[in-house]
Specification:
Double Stranded RNA Binding Domain, 6 strands, two-stranded antiparallel ribbon
């Protein structure tokens, strides 16, 4: 991915670890399309553990940060990705209008709606998001 940076501190990163970190960053990108940049920092701790830090920059919000440590580098990367995924899901729950606008744009490109689609948020029996069409 061109918008992902892998930074190594106090260790040499093998191609396998670099490829694994890029693959996991791609998984994050599939969850939330509007990610601006992902930085993965790989480090070693003093007690023979591996430290992984991830910073995910998103528009209209503070960057999401996750840190994890484990004796296995791949496991530490997985733990950091899990933390970022939960933060992104929480962000999407708190900001559902962006998803609704994306659906509107997709539907207009596919020619499904002839009018204007508007999304509302609130507590309703359907699950919190309501979409309707105005002609």
């Amino acid at each position: 991915m061109e918008d992902t940076t892998i930074v190594a501190r106090h260790l040499n990163v093998t191609e396998a670890i670099k490829k694994y970190a890029l693959q996991k960053a791609g998984k994050i990108k599939k969850i939330f399309e509007w990610i601006l940049h992902i930085q993965v920092t790989l480090d070693t701790g003093g007690d023979n553990s591996h430290l992984v830090g991830m910073i995910v920059s998103i528009p209209r919000g503070a960057p999401l940060v996750a840190k994890s440590s484990d004796s296995d580098m791949c496991r530490a990367i997985d733990l950091a990705v899990d933390k970022i995924e939960s933060q992104l899901k929480k962000h999407k729950r708190q900001n559902p209008i962006k998803d609704c606008l994306k659906e509107k744009a997709d539907n207009n490109r596919n020619g499904r709606f002839s009018g204007y689609t508007r999304c509302l948020t609130g507590n309703n029996s359907i699950g919190g998001r309501l979409s309707y069409e105005i002609n």
